């Protein structure tokens, strides 16, 4: 679960820190207090794109840090598969923003934002304010089903991806192979020329690097010889280093017998003298053996130009040029025996199509099996959310062709009133209904996967009264097995809190800041009173808030028993 959130220099937040608890965590506050900033901060830490306006004015950097407690073995295994180690049952995710760029870290180690998103998906699921609108898209329906059927599709999805890839590659090759006789002959002629050009060059791996080194040595030959000669004169000529070390040795040798320390000094200098003499011999031999061969230089330059021309034409390296040659040889062989090649290609495409059809069919069967249990579970959850006579189904149709996701065109169907036929979800449900339907789906998915923390950003949009009460009860039930963090403006939901937090805005040092703090039981009733009564909070409103809280606590206690 999410233990701690630390935010610094984001939007209206100067610096704030909050510890969350198990169960249902409620966040409330007046409009404009900064509730969206809290969710935005968490999203930012989880790898979302950085918006310039998120950074607090006059701040050079910002930081968001999340500390998760991870105790479930399934979660630990999933994190391990992502190369994340769980130390002391904790995982720390952080994102620092400097000059508009973010640095994401997991347990102190930098990771790409894309990797951060993968890791976050194991730890937390965020339901944004407008996410329920995605239910208007049929594509989202199939994504939800596949998420629910993850276990059954675990091996089939990679097999489907491989079959689709092979099918598409052969389909493309078949399109490219459909050429008329004149075009085929022109391509044969071009390929023969290009293959001949590469083969005639007799390239070998690493040859270009050797040529570059030899060319550099020849081009700088005069400079090299001048430097070598100067070095030799400094170390080997009259009155130079070797002559002076020899003279120093003779001087030390005349007195070394009188003192052991002088003998050690003499031995050190003798070693230096030997090394210097060896150096002089080697430098002299090098200069004697080195001469500028104009004919050799011309051949090296000519060969290097030829190699670079072929690299520029067929690939950036000799390896790529040789690989290009092999591909051209294969293509030429196909075009020279065109009828056989085309017949074989059509056969392979047919086999790939059959294989894709077979695995697509198995994927479809698994989806239909899981769709039954998914819709039954969602139906039950919807009844808990005041859809008393709901019918919730999933309709399958076969696509006219194949896609990377198989052959299924699937869509959720719903009827919310007795006697009404089921219709496409996106065409029937209102905004408030979509919000509750998404909550029901999230509830079902959460019961199945390992994600422990669920965040709902104003899931109560478009609902009130009895429906709001039933949503609060559903959130309470969900909070028994998951950590729920919910931003709400409805007192019915806030009253169910296991922990209630207030987000409020104030002015400090002539600057507006937002802060979040946990409320005591008394303060929570005050906040419920504000949510119930608005501007003027009477004693009667406060009594209603207290009664609402007492009823919620009683319901929570009864549910536990």
Give structural attributes.
58% helix; single chain; Rossmann fold; six-stranded antiparallel sheet
3D structure, described in words:
There is one protein chain. The chain has 561 residues and is of the alpha/beta class. Among the domains are: 1-129 and 458-519, P-loop containing nucleotide triphosphate hydrolases (Rossmann fold, 3-Layer(aba) Sandwich); 210-334, no CATH class. It is 58% helix and 19% strand. It has 20 helices and 15 strands. The chain has helices at 35-45, 73-81, 113-123, 138-148, 150-153, 156-177, 181-201, 207-219, 221-236, 241-253, 260-289, 294-314, 318-336, 338-384, 425-428, 431-448, 465-481, 491-494, 521-533, 539-560; strands at 2-10, 13-19, 24-28, 61-69, 90-98, 101-106, 109-111, 124-127, 391-403, 406-415, 423-424, 453-457, 483-487, 499-508, 511-518. The strands form 3 sheets. A 6-stranded antiparallel β-sheet has the order 2-1-4-5-6-7, covered by helices on one side. Strands 8-12-13-3-14-15 form a 6-stranded mixed β-sheet, sandwiched between helices. Helix 6 (156-177) runs antiparallel to helix 14 (338-384), helix 10 packs antiparallel against helix 11 (260-289) and helix 13 crosses helix 14.
């Amino acid at each position: 679960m999410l233990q701690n959130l630390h935010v610094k220099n984001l939007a209206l937040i100067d610096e704030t820190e909050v510890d969350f608890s198990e169960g249902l965590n409620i966040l409330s506050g007046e409009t404009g207090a900064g509730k969206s900033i809290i969710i935005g901060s968490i999203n930012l830490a989880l790898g979302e794109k950085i918006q310039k306006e998120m950074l607090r004015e006059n701040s050079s950097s910002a930081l968001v840090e999340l500390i998760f407690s991870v105790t479930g073995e399934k979660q630990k295994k999933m994190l391990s598969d992502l190369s994340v180690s769980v130390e002391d049952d904790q995982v720390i995710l952080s994102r620092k923003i400097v000059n508009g760029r973010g640095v994401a870290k997991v347990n102190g180690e930098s990771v790409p934002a894309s990797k951060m998103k993968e890791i976050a998906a194991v730890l937390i699921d965020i339901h944004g304010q407008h996410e329920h609108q995605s239910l208007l898209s049929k594509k989202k329906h199939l994504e939800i089903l596949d998420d629910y059927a993850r276990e059954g599709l675990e091996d089939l999805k990679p097999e489907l991806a491989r079959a689709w890839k092979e099918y598409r590659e052969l389909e493309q090759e078949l399109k490219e192979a459909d050429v008329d006789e004149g075009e085929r002959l022109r391509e044969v002629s071009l390929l023969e020329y290009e293959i001949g050009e590469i083969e005639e060059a007799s390239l070998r791996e690493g040859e270009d690097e050797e040529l570059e080194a030899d060319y550099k040595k020849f081009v700088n030959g005069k400079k090299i010889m001048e430097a070598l000669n100067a070095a030799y004169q400094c170390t080997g000529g009259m009155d130079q280093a070797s002559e002076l070390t020899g003279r120093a040795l003779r001087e030390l040798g005349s007195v070394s017998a009188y003192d052991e320390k002088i003998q050690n000094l003499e031995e050190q200098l003798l070693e230096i003298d030997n090394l210097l003499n060896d150096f002089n011999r080697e430098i002299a031999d090098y200069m004697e053996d080195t001469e500028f061969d104009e004919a050799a230089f011309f051949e090296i330059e000519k060969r290097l130009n030829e190699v670079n021309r072929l690299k520029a034409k067929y690939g950036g390296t000799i390896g790529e040029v040789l690989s290009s040659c092999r591909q051209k040889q294969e293509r030429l062989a196909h075009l020279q025996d065109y009828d056989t090649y085309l017949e074989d290609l059509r056969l392979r495409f047919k086999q790939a199509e059959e294989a894709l059809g077979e695995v697509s069919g198995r994927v479809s069967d698994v989806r239909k099996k899981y769709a039954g249990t998914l819709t039954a579970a969602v139906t039950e959850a919807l009844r808990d959310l005041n859809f008393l006579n709901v019918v919730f189904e999933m309709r399958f149709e076969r696509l006219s062709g194949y896609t990377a996701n198989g052959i299924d065109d699937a869509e959720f169907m719903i009827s919310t009133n007795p006697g009404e036929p089921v219709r496409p979800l996106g065409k029937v449900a209102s905004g408030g209904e979509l919000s509750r339907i998404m909550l029901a789906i999230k509830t079902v998915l959460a019961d199945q996967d390992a994600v422990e923390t669920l965040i709902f950003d104003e899931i109560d949009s478009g609902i009130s009264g009895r429906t709001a009460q039933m949503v609060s009860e559903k959130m309470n039930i969900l909070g028994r097995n998951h950590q729920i963090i919910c931003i709400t403006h409805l007192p019915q939901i806030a009253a169910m809190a296991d922990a209630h937090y207030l987000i409020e805005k104030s002015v400090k040092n002539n600057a507006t800041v937002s802060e979040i703090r946990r409320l005591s039981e008394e303060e929570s009733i005050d906040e419920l009173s504000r949510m119930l009564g608005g501007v003027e909070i009477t004693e009667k409103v406060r009594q209603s808030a207290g009664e609402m809280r007492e009823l919620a606590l009683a319901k929570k206690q009864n549910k536990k028993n």
